[in-house]
Amino acid sequence: MRRMALVTLVVDDYDEAIRFYTEALGFRLVEDTPRPDGGRWVVVEPGGAGQGGGLLLARAKGEAQRNRIGDQTGGRVGFFLHTDDFARDHARMVAAGVRFLEEPRHEPYGSVAVFEDLYGNRWDLLQPAA
User: Which of 31, 68, 128, 130 is most exposed by smallest CB count within 10 Å?
Assistant: First the structure.
C-alpha cells in the first residue's frame, strides 16, 4: 500500500521549529539526526507512531529557500491538521500562543479554524463531520 510519508517544511531554525511543533501543536519528535553537511534530519508528526503524515523540518539553504519560509503555498491554507476533539485542541493551542486567524466555524464538512505556524504558513485545524 502506498501512503504519503513526509512533506518538507522549510524552516529558519531547527530548534525553534521543533519547539513550536512539539509544544504548541502537540506533535511528537520522531527523529533528529545530524547530517554530514552540518544539517539535521528532523521529523515531527502529529499522530501516533507509524500513522504517517509527518513533516520533515528542513533548514533553508540559500536565498531562494529563505524567501519561501512562511509562504510555501502563496498565502493559501497548505496544511490540514485533523483532530478528534476540535474544542480541546483549539483551546490547548490558543493557550500555547498559536495565532488563529478566525473564530471557529462549523461547516457541513466539520469544525474548522485557520491558524498560522511560527513562520506564517496557514493551516486548518479540522474536525471532520462524522
Answer: 130
